[in-house]
From TrEMBL:
PROSITE patterns in alphabetical order: AMIDASES
Name of the top EC class for this enzyme: ligase
Pfam family, one: Amidase
Role: Allows the formation of correctly charged Gln-tRNA(Gln) through the transamidation of misacylated Glu-tRNA(Gln) in organisms which lack glutaminyl-tRNA synthetase. The reaction takes place in the presence of glutamine and ATP through an activated gamma-phospho-Glu-tRNA(Gln).
Keyword ATP-binding (UniProt): yes
E.C. code: 6.3.5.7
GO molecular function, a single term: glutaminyl-tRNA synthase (glutamine-hydrolyzing) activity
UniProt name for this protein: Glutamyl-tRNA(Gln) amidotransferase subunit A
Active site residues of this protein: K81, S156, S180
SUPFAM superfamilies: Amidase signature (AS) enzymes (SSF75304)
Self-association and partners: Heterotrimer of A, B and C subunits.
Keywords on record: ATP-binding, Ligase, Nucleotide-binding, Protein biosynthesis
InterPro entries associated with the record: Amidase (IPR000120), Amidase_CS (IPR020556), Amidase_dom (IPR023631), AS_sf (IPR036928), GatA (IPR004412)
């Protein structure tokens, strides 16, 4: 019974909780049991909030019993990426420097989840301060991909994606600065949506790169992602970059699942050499499927996308070197060497030396250099100009097509350890996702099958203009409906059953 519960969609769970067929306590307990059984192996969670989750669930059940109207996801459990604040639980950002730090306020995203009566199971693992594409940069150890536990679940939001694929949670929240929702979605066979920049609030999201960071929904199917997106989206006066505009009808678009008459552009620069054959094959098949569903397919060139990765790896380190300056041993978390002998500056240096991992240090050094006087114009300034050219490529394309598509990632999930000593190889995992972050538009990854060569999930990326997030859902839902008819179920029905650690030991 409880295995079945953890395989249900969020919308099905919510419907049964609303009618009283299931209680939220029962659903929450089933997911906590699943976490207890498999998370020693998967390590999706950094913190499990067992008692509070059950209390929240009981409160939803009491509301229902009292005849109160419940929201569309009320009582459904969720996994929250540990870069968003939630009072009463530590926020670590996957870093030693914040170990045990208890935030004094809730992120707007967190608060909206609570207001919608969504049950928060705990905080999920991530690359330290969301820097990475594999979740191997977490100071608390890697997360494993439930499709193959020797492989990475993507990053930085590997914990959130793995929690979905391991059936530990039906919903999760991620944050996407360069691909950290979409790339983990692609390599775990789940749905990940990066809303329009400013469409979801950054208040209470520990900043990586403020001009790029975007919280968004992660789910096992398109409608669940849309329902969650609607809960967290919308203007927030506490975030100065939040957009004060109506949220498009994303749930309606997900239900419509209709691409007939849509014009879809395949980005020429995001494909070809360097892409795994199975990724290319599934992507090409999915595009043909969209055409058969009535979409008009054209090839589009976005010539400046070739420079996106280079521009991103100047802009992101620059912003993060400044954002992470606040971790100085005085205000938050860790303090090392405070023995009355060392100066304040020496304590700061010793703390940052001990508290930050290699990738974080690498980016702080690059960013500090790129922003230094004499180099600012040549590096940071130049990268910002390239960013404008990329945004113009998108504008020109969207004058002609409704959405753009590409593979989400050049390869399927790679092996744990394979790229840790090769930062450039790691950075290439985000080749396709970064342009949308630089331009601030909406984009998403949807599962389109398994690569024949390794049997691992492949994602298709859809990119839409700013504030046209609904188009992502139209395309994603149409694809999902057609593919699930071919497969006779969801892609995740084909995931091998996870061995629990007890079974491994046997
Ligand atoms: N992998 C990218 C990076 O390392 C994306 C990070 C993100 O989106 N948070 O910067």
């Amino acid at each position: 019974m409880s295995a079945e519960l953890t395989h249900l969609t969020a919308s099905a769970l919510a419907a049964q909780i609303a009618t009283g067929e299931l209680s939220s306590v029962q659903v929450t307990q089933a997911h906590l049991d699943r976490i207890a059984a498999v998370d020693d192996l998967v390590h999706a969670f950094l913190h499990i909030d067992r008692d509070r989750a059950l209390d929240q669930a009981a409160a939803v059940d009491a509301k229902r019993a009292a005849g109160e109207r419940l929201g569309p996801l009320a009582g459904v459990p969720l996994a929250l990426k540990d870069v968003l604040t939630y009072t009463g639980a530590p926020t670590t950002c996957g870093s030693k420097i914040l170990e045990g730090w208890m935030p004094p306020y809730n992120a707007t995203v967190t608060q909206r989840l609570l207001d919608a009566d969504i049950v928060i199971l705990g905080k999920t693992n991530l690359d330290e301060f969301a820097m990475g594409s594999s979740t191997e940069n977490s100071a608390y150890g890697p997360t494993r991909n439930p499709w193959d536990t020797d492989r990475i679940p993507g990053g930085s939001g590997g914990g959130s994606a793995a929690a979905l694929a391991a059936f530990e949670a039906p919903l999760a929240i991620g944050t996407d600065t360069g691909g950290s929702i979409r790339q983990p979605g692609a390599v775990t066979g789940t749905v990940g949506v990066k809303p329009t920049y400013g469409g979801t609030s950054r208040y209470g999201l520990v900043a990586l790169a403020s001009s790029l960071d975007t919280p968004g929904p992660c789910a096992r199917n398109v409608l669940d992602a849309a329902l969650l997106h609607r809960v967290i989206a919308g203007h927030d006066p506490r975030d100065s970059t939040s957009i004060d505009a109506p949220v498009p009808d994303i749930v309606g678009a997900a239900r419509a699942a209709d691409v007939s008459g849509m014009k879809i552009g395949v980005v020429k620069e995001l494909g070809g050499e360097g892409y795994a054959p199975g990724v290319e094959q599934r992507f090409t098949e999915a595009v043909a499927l969209l055409e058969s569903l009535g979409a008009d397919i054209v090839e589009v060139s976005c010539p400046h996308f070739d420079y996106a990765l280079a521009a991103y790896y100047l802009i992101l380190p620059s912003e993060c070197s400044s954002n992470l300056a606040k971790f100085d041993a005085m205000r938050f978390g860790l303090r090392v060497g405070d023995d009355g002998v060392l100066s304040a500056e020496q304590v700061m240096a010793a703390t940052r030396e001990a508290g930050f991992g290699a990738e974080v240090k690498r980016r702080i050094i690059i960013g500090t250099y790129a922003l230094s006087s004499g180099y600012y114009d040549a590096y940071y300034g130049q990268a910002q100009k390239v960013r404008t050219l990329i945004a113009r490529d998108f504008e020109a394309a969207f004058a002609d097509v409704d959405v753009l598509v590409s593979p989400t990632t050049p390869s399927t999930a790679f092996r744990i350890g394979e790229r840790v000593d090769d930062p450039l190889a790691m950075y290439k995992a985000d080749l396709c996702t970064i342009p949308s972050n630089l331009a601030g538009n909406a984009s998403a990854s949807f599962p389109v099958g398994l690569a024949p060569e390794d049997g691992l999930p492949v994602g298709l990326q859809v990119m839409a203009p700013p504030l046209a997030d609904d188009r992502l859902y139209r395309v994603g839902a149409a694809l999902e409906r057609a593919l699930e008819a071919q497969w006779g179920g969801s892609l995740l029905d084909r995931i091998p059953e996870l061995t629990t650690l007890q079974e491994v030991a046997r």
